[in-house]
Specification:
single chain; mainly alpha; two-stranded antiparallel sheet; 74% helix; 1% strand; globular
Length: 332
């Protein structure tokens, strides 16, 4: 446990102390997000903050393994590096959606090679497909969520905290250590990203966070309960970004707009339209992430009936919330 605590503080320190120089480098190299009608900031904002998150998490993990991580950890770090580099390239030059997806699939293939994948009692081909779908889905959901100061990093921090808790309770050192690294790196970054933000994480940070949280979800194991129940645990812990992506995709398809089109129609924007300030909207979504996480913890000990009853009720509540937020967006 002391090693996990060390990982947290190393990631926190590396992330927090690297932001000022990264901010200066971002401006010098032109990694700057210009204001636009679809964006909330009114002045140019440096990107590359995600490098601090990436660097903090990776350095912390390498330190705790004394620079010699086991093969599976090495595979995870390699996959994360590929995805982060794709995000960095997108921040500088812009990439089409298919290219970013391709980078995520390459990262997923690396993970599968190192046996980091879905392991349900189904044919391997289906497990591989589910692995790639989960990795790409969560990566893009966290990227979608990066639409308001402090939102994506804060939600990722809350989700990582729950994964850290579950990893520690189930004596899964890799999960606990990696989750602690993500938590520390996100908190160090939030010092400069919570409203009013001084730097944005960019795709290098958002894609990295989504990918690493998806990996943590794959690696969680609950031997005291059945897979037919525990597969829902990471889905609930990451329920907020999944809900937000579902809301946006359904809304845009209904309006005949491409889901890949950027816009001010996310959950956070709709809460602001309901009268909340941006800070209040972000904090409300932190709370909802915490509520999802508590359901995830409950499911680790739930019976099959309890788990699927909770899932059914949650699905109905989510559908109602989507309907209600869609009316807010239309001004009804």
């Amino acid at each position: 446990m002391r090693a996990v605590i060390a990982v947290f503080f190393i990631a926190l320190a590396v992330s927090a102390f690297s932001i000022p120089p990264i901010r200066r480098v971002a401006v010098a190299l032109g990694f700057v997000d210009a204001p636009a009608q679809r964006k909330l900031h009114s002045t140019p904002m440096p990107l590359m903050g995600g490098l601090a998150i990436f660097g903090g998490a990776i350095v912390a993990v390498l330190v705790v393994y004394r620079g010699r991580p086991p093969d599976q950890v090495l595979g995870i770090l390699l996959a994360l590096t590929v995805v982060a580099l794709v995000g960095l390239w997108d921040d500088r030059n812009g990439l089409p959606a298919w290219a970013k997806l391709g980078g995520q699939l390459i990262g997923g293939a690396i993970l599968i090679w190192f046996d980091v994948r879905v392991q349900l009692p189904v044919p391997d081909a289906l497990n591989y497909a589910l692995t790639l779908f989960w990795l790409a889905g969560i990566s893009n959901a966290i990227n979608f969520l990066d639409n308001m100061d402090g939102l994506s990093a804060g939600v990722s921090a809350v989700a990582a905290a729950f994964m850290l808790l579950l990893g520690a309770l189930n004596e899964q050192f890799l999960v606990a250590a990696l989750a602690a690294a993500v938590l520390g790196a996100c908190l160090g970054f939030l010092r400069y990203n919570f409203k009013p933000a001084q730097i944005f994480m960019g795709d290098v940070g958002a894609l990295f966070l989504g990918f690493v949280l998806a990996i943590l979800g794959l690696q969680l194991r609950f031997p005291e309960n059945a897979n037919i129940v525990t597969w829902m645990v990471p889905v609930f812990i990451l329920g907020l970004p999944i809900f937000d992506t579902s809301l946006v995709v359904i809304s845009r398809i209904r309006r005949g707009v491409s889901p890949n089109t950027a816009g001010k129609d996310h959950t956070s924007h709709r809460l602001v339209k309901m009268g909340y300030s941006q800070r209040e909207a972000v904090l409300i979504l932190y709370l909802f992430t915490g509520a999802f996480g508590m359901v995830g913890v409950f499911l680790t000990k739930a019976t099959v009936l309890e788990a699927y009853l909770m899932a059914g009720i949650s699905a109905l509540v989510a559908l109602y919330a989507i309907s209600r937020l869609e009316r807010v967006y239309r001004g009804e």
